Write the structure tokens for this entry.
Amino acid sequence: MFAAQFCCALPSFAQADSNKTARKKVARADEITVIALRQPEKALEVPLAVTVVPASMFQNGRGFGLDEALSLVPGALVQSRTGNQDVRVMIRGFGARGAGERSNAGTSRGIRFYIDGIPETEPDGRTAFDLIDLAGASSVEVLRSNASALWGNASGGVVNISMIPTQNHAFVSAQTQFGSFGFAKQSLRASTPTDFGKVFLSVNNTGFAGWRAQSESRLQQAYVGMVSNLSAKSRLNVFLVAASNAFQIPGPLTEAEFAADPAQAQDDPAIYNPTYVQRNERRFNRLGRIGTTFEHEFDAHNSISTTAFLQSKYLQRSERNTFRDFNRYHAGGNVIFRNHGQLASWLKHSLVAGIDQQYQDGAILFYNLVNGNRGTTLRDNRREGANNFGAFAQEELMFSGNLSVLAGLRYDNITYFYENFITPAVNEIRSFERLTPKIGVSFRPSEEMTLYANLGGGVEVPAGNETDPPSVAGEDTLRSVNSLLKPIESTTYEIGIKQALLVDEGNFLERFSYDAALYLVNVVNDIIPYRGGRFYFTAGRSQRRGLELGFNAQFAHGLSLMGAGTFMQSNFLEYRIDSGFVSRSLEGRFADYAGNKMPGIPDVFGSLRLRYVPSFLPQAFAELEYRAVGTYFANDANTLTAQGFSVLDASIGIKQGLLDERLWINAFLRGNNLANTKYAASIWINPDRASNGQYPYIEPGLPFNYVASIGVEWRL
């Protein structure tokens, strides 16, 4: 349970209705509630930028990475690193640094992720995508505003994937997909209502030979859920999830390598020795989790909800010429109390307060690497733990005249535990604390429109590996834990508008909804990766200014047009670094990057999707989608460039009911990158300079590829 959203009102406008009264009711945006404020709230009253993407918007694709699901979310840029589940997620610039050799492939930073309200994000702010299953998802919900005042560490944005089926009838469905470069996927879903609620299942198996050398992927996932009403006032949900995810990592290319052959892996000993191919760079994670959520209403004004989960994982990686075994467990939960009521005839209030707790601990064994496999020499044996505690409270006042004001405050304490069983002197505990405020106001001049403004703080502590000591020249000036790092502190100023319009049926434009957000984010202590993530420092001050636009237009004759656009400027305001940390010979010389563009963040990106459902065959559809990303830099000095690009995708499909609509046949064919454009899908921030003077930093995007699917669903 997390958020639904108004923004483009996609679910509400999915079907036409000839009854104008019914259509007007569906079109009213306040019929959609959100839980972005950690309690149910009418969408138009929420002073935040939020977006929901229903399954219908991403179910006709490969379903492998979040890049497909979030392509129409303003402010969100998701970059696929090799065409599989490994993506880099960025919202308003948060998460941009999570790419590099030493930035833990398969993870993202700066954004918090949840599945049905259970956190995927670890206590230190890193998120792995192993458990995210788009084949069984019913929606993906995105809170784009800085949300640290409610959600805590690494909440530059919040993403929740809902796996609970929206259908209230029993069904069993099976789907098989195949496509370019050995892509194959088999999915099975089932759900049935019960006397107490609903039970559902989602299982899938995905294989991808990879379009680049050294980029094969194998992913198996299973998700079982139970949604139950224990009584009229109590609800209990239980979720079981497991996954096995293995993929190879081809490494980044230099500009010359990218121009010559983007399909190659990094196999030049002048750049990495041993190369990515020689050490068989890869990641293999096996994990499982049980999670529960419980809600109880004491009376009409007071309620409580709790969440609890326990997860274990066994991760193996070949990385940086070592073989690493991780054994970790992750446990936590929250308790939230809610109170609402009438304070006066003209004033209502809503209070939400709670605590969040996450703890992760475990061992890492470092072995030597022999021909890409684990050797017999144990090089290191570490314990790495993290605890994340947060307490928050928020009060919202709703005045007559459609005006509401909210204010909130959160306290976070994140503590890291380091213990080295080979070198005991490196044992250490480090804590970060932060108070984060929030204030917002919204005004509804009509039932279909809301104007809002908010001011909020943000916090993101350095991830565990970012506090490691740098293995570079000048490291003797540092403590065993990188004491130069501080939490990223941000302040966001945001204004926005949301509106849903229903035009008379006789007009060419029948329905139109949009949202626009204008924001300014001031950041202190941005964490910057150096030498491909070999070590990290904090910059002085930076600033991001942006405009986000999203819309959904439904026309007559089965036409619809959806779009999302982001325009953003991201610059360092103060940033001065001693070059001695890069080379001892340069000690005492300072590089000043004030005024430079922040790396990894394009000034402009967006997408348009045109959909046609013919009136003579309403079971079928055809779509065209145009996606574009502007040019941006890969390093602080702004000397390495990722060129802008645009790609065009197309798909056709049909969903036909048979046997009195008990049996449904679904089929689609999709072509991606129809023009076979060569482009950099993702880049490494501040990469190493190789011995030949070149910089490997480009992760090429998929060339032309297709996916075909056939599925059946039996409704009981």
